[in-house]
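Posting this for the archive.
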Amino acid sequence: MSKGFYKNRRLKSFIFLSACFLVALIPHAYNIENFLYLILTLSLVIVFYGLIVISRNFKRNKVSTTVSSKLSNKELPVLDILVAARDEENVIARLVERLFNLNYPTNKLNIYIIDDGSSDKTPLILNRLSKQYEKLKVVSRSPNAGGGKSGALNYALKFTHGEWLLILDADAQLKQDSLIRLFSFVEEGDWSAVQLRKSVTNESKNFLTSCQSMEMAMDAIFQYGRLSVAGVSELRGNGQLIKKETLLACGSFNEDTVTDDLDLSLRLLLSKSKIGILWDPPVMEEAVENLNALLAQRQRWAEGGLQRFFDYGDQLLTNKIDFLQKFDLTYFFILQYALPIISIFDLILSITLLDTPIYWPISFTAFMLSGIAFWYGSYCKSEVPVLQKSSFLMVFVSVFYLSHWFLVIPWVTIKMSIFPKKILWRKTLHTGV
């Protein structure tokens, strides 16, 4: 990536940060008449659209989680499963064993594990597994090959020959019939890509893992609703099925972003490719178990999430997508990225000027909608329960847990505005427990 790009990104980040600061400053600096009424009106709009999005899940929840029809072996397409693995000695053997136990025609299933420059026992384990499973295809890259997960996946693409690609993380767990049900869902919806709902395997480990379990359910609630209302949905990295032809037409995986899934989601939207959201069966994965790992992960997500809007913002403003899609993207961009920064500046200005915070009704509205989605996601019928035991108190505490985004987003935006950026992929440790 050129130095010019980094300056361009830094400039866009600085402009965005400055705009958020001005939005927070102006009502404190000038006594704008009826400004509170404007804030309350915006809050009502946010509530109205948010409730519509959440309510679209009622219809989904009434539908049986079992597929209405199963495809015959002859109808099932050739599928390539790709797993980029770096230093995954704790989970790689379990993953390979489970992948070869999935219900799918063996002559139509290819499994590729990309050893992406591992320095632990992963290469030795894969060498042993390749002797145990003849159809296991191990692709090796050098430690300095570059491109991170995206680079590993792009490198492996030239070895694949299936019609569809399923991208999994090394800690992924699927039900035995997941693949057959997944393609039945594809057949019914004519999707170009499908994201399986993500579920947590270690949700009972501690407070953080329980909150992440509920957060993933909340995310799926919003994603399904957004898809139903506006036709906008996003991939989530692990458990994403993509038609190979569609992926190649979009330019494969972007090696210049730290969140290839979010980047690809916007490119698919711009190319009019539909991403389906499948609630059950889910893909299961480990949640991070400590605060440092959580913050490192969320900083990466925040950086990649912002970068995609900076990269494709001009295209999103054109006629490549319709008005409702533009409204939906604007709505969630404001809530996810602008609101945390504006709220922090609003709080700092209130303390400095001994004034009353102004944007609290919008923040309250955003947290309220999250709480509703938390609660509904936790109680929805699910093959893998979101929590072993849920309660109103747990929902309330989980909503409070979301406030970490109000620190992460401003901090990441400030870093993107000031410091030169090198693309760094921070690995999430998988324990296998």
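Residues 323-353 form the longest helix (31 residues). The chain has one domain: 1-63+191-433.
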